[in-house]
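BUG: 3D viewer hangs when loading the predicted structure for this chain

Environment: internal workstation, default settings.
Expected: structure renders.
Actual: progress bar stalls at 90%.

Input used:
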Amino acid sequence: MSAPTSRHGGHRTHRTRILGGAAAALGLTLAATACGGGSTTASGADLDGQTLEVVGPWAGDEQVAFEQVVSIFEEQTGATVSYSGAGDDLQTVLQTRIQGGDEPDVALIPQAGLIEHFAAEDVLVPLTDDVVQTVDENMAGAWADIGSVGDTPYGVYLKVANKSLVWYNDDLFAETGAAPPENWEEFVELSDNLSDVGISPLSVAGADGWVLTDWFENVYLQTAGPEMYDQLATHEIPWTDPSVEVALETLAEVWGQEQLMLGGGSGSLQTDFPTSVVNVYSDDPDAAMVVGADFIGGVVSASTNSVVGETAQVFPFPSIAGEGDAVVVAGDAAVAMSDSEATMELLRFLASEEAAAEWASIGGFLSPNMHLTADDYADPVLGQVAEQIIDAGDSVRFDLSDLQPAAFGATVGDGMWQTLQDFLADPSDVEGTMERLEAEAARAHGN
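Structure tokens produced before the viewer hung:
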């Protein structure tokens, strides 16, 4: 696999722009300080006088929250932890420091493919048995799998995103008597009904290719199931597989009906992600629903007068073929770049219920920790979408495009992004879309 120089591409950029400010506003503006901390002490090691350096993508409110969480570890152990935020330049910063022999003790990695990249460079230290045990005690096995390269565990997932959500304008739903659907068939029927009464059902950000890959990933996970999803992600099966055809044909049930999308396909291709959210939650909304991750709530809080949990409500991406619990996720993993007791104790703490509960009480945060409940979250909407992740158990799957070489999964005007934009423009071209996806995947994967 090639070095994922821009693998996260627009994901990382939109995340920094939205999560770093607006999405943090979701949690922090709604958060009164809730009771933080788990019921047990995560680390009792004596690390007095030792110093640890952490480098990650977070800035602003995310950095403040992380430092508050880590202060508990400092109090428990006597260690000092310093954090530096590298933003969109994280990979470059880490690569430069690695080349200079100056790796931080811990790096916070925002995409699974980058863990694989650094593991291949032999700069990551595998998790100790104590850390692995803490991960296993607190998270579904899928998270250990996502944080591993082969059979070697490297990553502790701390802060995650739920990408299997549909946000809706509750005022418009109330006006029309609409209710959140239970499955894909009801979702399409709901969209038809909204269109029939003159309301554009969906605002689709087709100008941002990563939004379309999120749509595809959710439909594919629901129609093909987690095991086939894994095989497609690693190119063990081709993009001309019948399972891809089923997913594209299912997508076309919405994308192929111009009246179901604000502006139709052509209008959607001119709509970027922030605009797609504002279209649903402005004072004079133009559409009723927008498909997207939990951080849409941050855009709502920062860019509209709507209130998350009131006008801005959410339901799970509709179940298809009985795969209702499956969830597409993204997230940030802590990995070790130094081999010391202090480093591993910090990772063990970050995997604990105590660390997760503290950040949940601050806001702007989702945890994969299965011991947290919705009541642990300062924001009840985030608590709701966090429980969806926990309920998915081992059916969570990491964002498929982020697992690809950058040229295929995260490049403007190329690969998955461009091909799905072309498909949005012409949803009848299922066969041609599959052939182009396969040709580009084979080229990117080198096979």
